[in-house]
Design brief:
five-stranded parallel sheet; 16% strand; 148 residues
Length: 148
């Protein structure tokens, strides 16, 4: 990431209430200049590979962070994660699993496919808001990454 470069997050979330809460919290915290939201795994892969409606790289820049739900229509979150981490162009992008599932199988599968973090969504609004703020600060403000 280049100093002063606008921060970009890709939110992959099919639940409209969870997406709205995440978008509002990330915006309120002022953590990212742009947050792009897609509702299924196929759209996430199209965005990341600049395909289909996301072909314009100026309008749809490479994200600095992907927040990825597991239970998604069309292509599930684990498959999205596998494809991102298998791509030379995409594998350095941090992918944080943000899901309602606390199942050990899901957790193990996510880390087996190189998720950078796995977070279970809290059920109450305040805890979810705090989690998103802390998450944003960690990945976009505090965490150091090589440029390029």
């Amino acid at each position: 990431m280049v100093e002063g470069e606008p921060l970009c997050i890709l939110l992959v979330e099919d639940n409209p209430d969870h997406a709205e809460l995440a978008l509002r919290n990330l915006s309120d915290a002022g953590l990212a200049n742009r947050v792009f939201h897609v509702e299924d795994g196929e759209a996430a892969l199209d965005y990341l590979h600049n395909r289909g409606r996301f072909v314009d790289q100026l309008s749809y820049p490479r994200p600095h962070l992907v927040l990825l739900d597991l239970r998604l229509p069309k292509v599930d979150g684990i498959e999205v994660l596998k494809q991102v981490k298998a791509s030379e162009q995409l594998k350095a992008i941090p992918v944080v699993i943000l899901t309602t599932s606390a199942a050990e199988r899901d957790l193990a599968q996510a880390y087996d496919h190189y998720a950078n973090s796995y977070l279970t969504k809290p059920v109450d609004f305040d805890s979810f808001s705090r989690l998103l703020q802390d998450l944003g600060f960690y990945w976009l403000a505090w965490n150091k990454r090589p440029s390029g």
